[in-house]
Specification:
single chain; 15% strand; alpha/beta; six-stranded mixed β-sheet; three-stranded antiparallel β-sheet
Length: 269
């Protein structure tokens, strides 16, 4: 059984449609699940589109609503909450995989974002086709559309006359991903039309060339050092994300900064 993560957006809508059409051929069962982060009133209507498509395809559909407090790193916290909710839904339904609608464009964008933030080879091996979902043994995260371009997804939806929603936050220039998607990639594609395919291939090579390397040595950038120092002065907790997607909680015994790695290095699905 495969749980399809659905938001009502174009990628997950196309994914749900394709997975449903392939059921007779591949013999898998599909159920769909949406997560409402409670951040936008329009999210309910977007999920309603996904629910309507699931009903048309005779696919079970359910929604989990989460409550995110205002604060920094909202997108990262929303992503973590979404992944937790999907894992819980998959476990409850007995699904062995969670399918997401990531495309080749998403992978190229993530590669460039990591590069801009100073990631090394391990951190640039982004969005693999499949990955274990810790700490859920036997539960994998899969990305069936990873070889497709976003234009392919839109063409599929037009061909089958399937309605979908557009999340306005995807056009918000306050988010780095939006600027990479709308400014950086189009500019680079003028120089190299096959840019997206090249970045995806490079990510694959980095994943296969260094699969078992130990975690890279910790290097704190200026932003991380400032965040740790500010937290020390205020006496408040803070989490630091560094190269390789490692996460640290600083502690301050005797006014010294000590970094405690709470999660082992992992590739973020």
């Amino acid at each position: 059984m495969v749980l399809c993560a659905c938001s009502g957006g174009p990628d997950s809508t196309a994914l749900l449609h394709v997975l449903a059409l392939l059921q007779p051929r591949l013999g898998h069962r599909v159920l769909a699940h949406g997560v409402d982060h409670g951040l936008r009133p329009a999210a309910s209507s977007e999920l309603a589109l996904a629910a309507a498509l699931a009903a048309r395809l005779d696919i079970p559909f359910a929604i989990t609503r989460v409550d995110l407090a205002p604060g920094p790193n909202l997108q990262a916290r929303a992503r973590d909450a979404r992944r937790t909710a999907l894992a819980a839904a998959a476990r409850a339904a007995g699904a062995r995989a969670i399918a997401t609608g990531h495309t080749a464009d998403d992978r190229a964008e993530t590669f460039l974002i990591r590069l801009l933030r100073g990631a090394g080879p391990r951190g640039l091996a982004v969005l693999p086709p499949s990955a274990s979902l810790p700490p859920e043994p036997g539960l994998d995260l899969i990305r069936p559309l990873l070889l497709a371009r976003r234009s392919d997804v839109l063409a599929h939806l037009r061909r089958h006359d399937i309605p979908f929603a557009d999340d306005p936050s995807n056009a918000d220039p306050r988010f780095l991903r939006t600027r990479v998607r709308r400014e950086v990639i189009p500019l680079l594609e003028e120089l190299s039309p096959q840019l997206v395919q090249h970045l995806c291939a490079l990510s694959d090579m980095l994943a296969s060339d260094r699969p078992d390397d130990p975690a890279p040595p910790l290097v704190l950038g200026r932003a991380q050092r400032l965040a740790a120092e500010k937290a020390r002065k205020r006496g408040v907790p803070v989490q630091l994300r560094v190269q390789g997607d490692r996460v640290f909680d600083p502690a301050f015994p005797e006014r010294q900064t000590v970094l405690i790695e709470e999660w082992q290095t992992r590739r973020r699905p």
